[in-house]
Amino acid sequence: MMDIWFRPLVWMDYRLEVLLAVIVPFVLLIWALFAKQEAMEKLLIIYWRVASLLMITVYLLIPDWKVGFISGFAARVLIAISLWFWVDLNEEIRDIPQNLFKLVFTSWRWAITGYCVLGAIAKSIFLPCGLSSNKVASDFCQVWLEAPEAYRSLFHNKPGNEGVLGFMGAVGLVIYIIYLAYFVLIRLGKQGRSALEQ
What we know:
Layout: H1 7-35, H2 38-61, H3 67-82, H4 87-95, H5 100-124, H6 133-136, H7 139-142, H8 146-155, H9 162-191
């Protein structure tokens, strides 16, 4: 594969994703449970449901399935929306007195939002990779498949299992789409922008 000038940026994006989208929110969720901050806990649980599309995307990209480029873009957009969509949670979090946990949580919330918005803009350039088999085979697109392959080598190091892992990602994507459709078509109509049960 020829040298791609933005390869370091792609790997930096994956590293930031692990930090901001996995490690920090996991620590915050544990912290919220111990601090008994229900609103933040609820928002973090919602975040994890939405952000699961990032892991699904990794599994879709392992066998070079082009739909992974589209799901990766969609994940950034949906995460950014989910963190600010809920009126009741926004109000409850705003009313919490200032403390260290709220400062860390708010800082992460803005950081991951900015990361997802900028990431979605950057990923939009690569959306053609998800629409053409010829395009996805180009070095321009293949550079995005290096990190998922490294993940496979680290956690699923068995020769020839790319198709099985891709199938797992496809099943996850179908379940995700069904749940998202249920939320948009049924639950959103009943509860609106309220995260808590009425």
